[in-house]
Amino acid sequence: MTDIHEHVFEDRTPGVEEHEPTATYLSYTVGLALAILATIVSWIVSQTDLLWPPGIPAGLIVLALAQIGVHLVFFLHLGTGSDSTNNILALAFGVLIVFLIIAGSIWIIANLNGNMMSMPLS
Amino acid sequence: MTIATTLDRTLIAVPTELARGRGGGGPAPKRIVVAFGFWIFILSDMIMFSALFAAYAVMSGNTAGGPSGAELFNLRSVFVETMCLLLSSYTCGIGVLSAERRQPTLFLIFAAFTFVLGAAFLFIEVAEFAGMVAKGAGPWRSGFLSAFFTLVGTHGVHVASGLIALVYLVAQMIAKGLRAAVLRRLLCWSLFWHALDIVWVGVFTLVYLMGVYQ
């Protein structure tokens, strides 16, 4: 059994640092290029009528989400590796809470405004 | 026993269940554990920002007869600001990567770039705030401006504290060298800095681009 252990896990003392390069210069540069692209495209979309005008807010949100995804993968190194499973689970919970707070607030206040009696402006 | 051994080997070759830190292969490296703890902090910071975003989304129409975003925001300077923060995020990542590869000189060069770009971002932001206050559009003017200054100002305070932390970490690296503990702190700091850039993506899109579009 010890033999298996040594072979398969290359048994290391717990807590000892090993050198695990998580990224390369290339992955950061690709991430930067994609992020700049997303920023410029969203800037152009907001300034011109390139996109169907009523769809501009939706387009901007999609571009922002895409850029956040690029940041998470290329800068924060959230990947499919077993090391980032816990981080991704925590992120999923965080996204849920963020969604509840933002969407819930907008929903509640919109309802409140809708049910408000119209008052004459003093 | 030999059969069992070969079976074990094939089973153990499945990486996810038996990888380190997931029950099979012993505890995860300290680097992973520390980064996970810091990730939890970042996520709670994100939840705080989400409350400020929600407040802004609710208040963005309440200008109380005062100036709206379309009249106040200068998208060109905001674009330059955004690029400064994005590039500083890039140099931060490259710098920490050089530190992990034990290249202290390269790390110091990129840390200097990161600091200058982050400071440029803050300078543009403070100039924008000062210009708005000079026009009488301070946070007291309307609900929209209160929410704007709270959201963007909180992000700015984060950037400022990130810059202070960077100076502190560079001093520590010079004093102690690139030892494991210093590398872990640098890793956490880079997570913080990248997370601020993610918040700024939201600010740039929801506050500035959409504010001017409306």
Describe the structure.
Chain A is mainly alpha-helical and 122 residues long. Chain A has helices at residues 2-9, 25-47, 56-75, 85-115. Chain A folds into two domains: 21-77; 83-112. In chain A, 67% of the residues lie in helices and 0% in strands. Chain B is mainly α and 214 residues long. The chains are: A mainly alpha (122), B mainly alpha (214).
List key phrases describing it.
heterodimer; A: 67% helix; disordered N terminus; B: mainly alpha; 8 helices; elongated
Q: Largest beta sheet of chain A, briefly?
A: none
Low-confidence segments of chain A, ≥5 residues, pLDDT <50?
A: 1-17
* Number of domains as seen in the coordinates of chain A: 2
Number of helices of chain B: 8
Number of domains of chain B: 1
Beta strand % of chain A: under 5%
Give the CA-based shape of chain A.
flat
Give the N-terminus to C-terminus distance of chain B in angstroms: 73 Å
Structural class of chain A: mainly alpha
Kindly report the average pLDDT value of chain A: 81
Secondary-structure content class of chain B: mainly alpha
Helix content, binned percent of chain B: over 70%
Q: Please give the CATH class of chain B.
A: Mainly Alpha
CATH architecture of chain B: Up-down Bundle
The level of helicity of chain A is 55-70%
Number of DSSP E strands of chain A: 0
| Full CATH superfamily name of chain B | Cytochrome c oxidase, subunit III, four-helix bundle
